[in-house]
Amino acid sequence: MSKIAVYPGSFDPITMGHVDIINRISPLYEEVIVLVAQSSQKQSMFSVEERKTLIEKSLSHLKNVKVDIFGGLTVEYMKKAKAQVIVRGLRAVSDFEYEMTMANMNRKLAPDFETLLVFASPEFYYISSRGVKEVAINGGALKGLVPDVVVEAMEKKIRK
After folding, report:
1. Is-catalytic flag, 61?
2. What is the pLDDT of residues 53-62, one digit of tens each?
3. Residue 129 known to be catalytic
4. Which residue stretches of 12-92 are H helix?
5. Residues 50-108 pLDDT 10s
């Protein structure tokens, strides 16, 4: 049986923390699907299609990683993709409670799926998409916070 992991998130934008986690988990699975959440509840800087493209460019060095877009429950996507594991990243203790609640909800909805919590590397634990957007809007340096392709896209968006 092939092992497929799904790493869901809004990725608005993808950060170096996300990239680090994907780099670290990709050798563990035959396929890793970065699942871009399509939500009408969040005000996004980038459209889902733009996010998908930026993620693909940022992860082009990883041949077993693909990017997809989905607007429903992650467990429904997991069934469709024949995946076994949901990967979630943890930056701080404050993330734990939310992630534990989500993992337990997913387990209730689909008991066959596991949730794997991956701790952010120390050099990236402080980086969040929200924080990166705040830095960008206020003219701060983005280098090292997001992949270079994302720096360019964010600067272009801000100039508009």
Report:
1. no
2. 999 999 999 9
3. yes
4. 16-25, 48-58, 74-81
5. 999 999 999 999 999 999 999 999 999 999 999 999 999 998 887 898 999 999 999 99
Q: Rounded CA gap, 79 and 76, in Å?
A: 5
State the DSSP string of 25-47. Answer: HGGGSSEEEEEEE--SSS--SS-
Can 18 be counted among the known catalytic residues?
Answer: yes
Output the CA torsion 9→10→15→20 (10° steps).
Answer: 10
Rounded CA gap, 12 and 65, in Å? Answer: 18
Query: What is the C-alpha separation between 39 and 72, in angstroms, rounded?
Result: 9
91 is catalytic: yes
Asked if residue 16 lies in contact with residue 124, where contact means CB atoms within 8 angstroms, the answer is yes
Catalytic residue, chosen from 2, 42, 108, 160, is 42
Q: Determine if the peptide bond prior to 111 is cis (ω within 30°).
A: no
Q: From CA 82, how far away is CA 91, in angstroms rounded? A: 28
Catalytic choice (18, 52, 88, 133) = 18
Q: Active-site residue among 24, 91, 107, 157?
A: 91
Beta-ladder partners of 104: none
